Amino acid sequence: MSLLENKGNDFASYKSDEVNLKDRLVKQLPSKDVEMLVNAGKLAQNMGVKCYLVGGTVRDLVLKKRCYDIDLTVDGDGLAFAEQFTKFYGKRMKSFAQFGTAFVVLKTGKKIDISTSRTEVYTSPGSLPKVKYGEIEYDLYRRDFTINSMAISVNPEDFGRLLDFHSGVKDLKAKVIRILNDQSFEDDPLRVLRAIRFEQRLGFDIENRTKELMMKSIESNCLKTVSAERVYTELIVSTNKGDAAKFITRLSELGILRQIHKSLYFDELKAEQAKELSKLLEWFVKEYPQDKIEKWYPFHLILFSGLPKDMQTSIAKQLTYPSNFIKSISKIKLFLDKIDSGELKDSTDGELALKLSGLRIEDVLYLLAVVKDDELKSRLRHYLTHSRSVSLSINGHDLLMMGVTLGALIGSILQTLKIQKIDGKISNREDELELAKKMVDDDSDSATNLE
Ligand code: ATP
Predict the structure, then answer these.
(1) What's the pLDDT tens digit per position in 140-174?
(2) In terms of CATH, what superfamily is 1-174?
(3) What is the distance between the alpha carbons of residues 238 and 220, in angstroms, rounded to a whole number?
(4) Distance spanning both ends of the chain, measured CA to CA
(5) CA of 54 to the centre of ligand 1 (A)
(6) pLDDT tens digits along 58-101
(7) Ligand 1 pocket at CB < 6 A
(8) What's the whole-model pTM score?
(9) Where are the domains of the chain?
(10) What CATH code would you report for 260-389?
C-alpha cells in the first residue's frame, strides 16, 4: 500500500500519466517562464531530484487564467537546487534554511519561490509549522484546498505531467472549494480567510462539509490563534485582486471581521462606497496604467472609516498595517476637516491641488468614492485627471541663477508658480521666469523696506 492510500483518499483512481499540460503551459505562460521551467527541469534531472510547478499557477493553468507567480517545489534538497539554479539563471537568492525554502530573483528580474517538498507538523493551531521533509505527495496533502494541491512536473522525462491526487481538476470543474481533511481549519485557521478569498475571487461555492467545518472554526473564534501579521497579509492579498467589496462584505456577513477586531464593521454604506471605489479603480487603472497604485489601500481606508481616529490608529497598529496607511488616515481626516470647516470652499484648483499633493493617489481615490458633494467630487476628479500632472518648466536651479539663496523662499516661489500654472494664469517657461522674477523683486523690496 502506498503512502497515499494510507490517508484513505481516493488515490486509487489516480493514474500518473493521465494528464499532461505541456501544451497549455507553453500556450499560457510567457515564453521566458516556459524556458525557465525547462531549465529548472534539466537542472533537477542533473542533480538527481524532481522539480514541480505547484500551487496557484497550476490551478490557474487548468482554469485557463493568466498566471503570474511561479512556485517550484523540489523532491529532494530544495535549497541546494535553489543555489545551483541561482548560479546559472539567477541574480540573487535568499534562503530560509529552517523552512527549506528560498526566494530567487532571476536574471530577468522575475521572482520565484523554491521550496522543498515536505510534510508539516503543526505544534499548535495557527503557529508556524515545524517542517519535516517528505515527498511531493505529502507536500500536496498539506495544502489548503484540493484546487491548490496540484503539481506539474518540469523534469524532462515527464515535463507537463499533472499530479492531482486530491481531484483538484474535478473540483475546479465543479467550482467548489474543498479542504483536504477534517483537521484543516484547526491546523491553520487562516485557511478560513483563504477559503473566502477563493470563493469570492473565483465565484466558487464552499463545499458543504468544508463549510460546516469552517463555520465551526469561526464559531470558536479561530483567528485569535493566528498572528496579526498573517491575517494582515491575507487581507491585503485578498483585496488586491478580485472583488474587494464582495470579499469584505462576506467577512462581515460571516462574523469574521469582528473577530479580526471587535470594532471593525462593514455596513451597507461602506459596501456601496466600496462598489463605487471598484468602478473608480477600474477607470483609473485603465486611464493611468503608469501610476502604480496599491488597490487594497483605499478599500481598507473604507473599512477603517467611521471609527474614532485614535481607534483607527490603534487597530491599524495592532494589525500591523504599514505606517503610511496610518499617516493616510490622519491626512485624510485633516483634509475632510478643512472641507467641513468651509476652508476650501472658495479655493482655486491650484490651491486645492496644493492641499491634495501631500496625499497619496489612493487617498484621493478613496475620497472620491466617499464624498457626497457633487461639486467636490468633480473637483477631486479634476485633480486626478489634470491638476496633479501639471509641472513647472523651471526649477530651484533657475531661481538660484536669479540670485535667490533662501531655501524657504525657493520653495514658496515654486509653490506659488505651480498654483498659478494649474489655475491657467501662466502657461510656459517665459511666464514662469517673469513671475518668479517679480516675486524675487517684491521680496527684496519688502526686505529693503524693513531695513
Ligand atoms: P494567488 O493567485 O492569490 O496568489 P495562490 O494559490 O498562488 O493564489 P498563495 O497564497 O501564493 O496563493 O499560496 C500558494 C500556494 O501555497 C497555494 O496555492 C497553496 O497550495 C499553498 N498555501 C498557501 N497558504 C496555505 C495555507 N495557509 N495552508 C495550506 N496551503 C497553503
Answers:
(1) 998 999 999 999 999 999 999 999 999 999 999 99
(2) Beta Polymerase, domain 2 (3.30.460.10)
(3) 23
(4) 99
(5) 9
(6) 999 999 988 888 999 999 889 999 999 999 999 999 999 888 89
(7) 55-56, 69, 71, 143-144, 148, 188, 190-191, 194, 237
(8) 0.86
(9) 1-174, 260-389, 396-450
(10) 1.10.3090.10
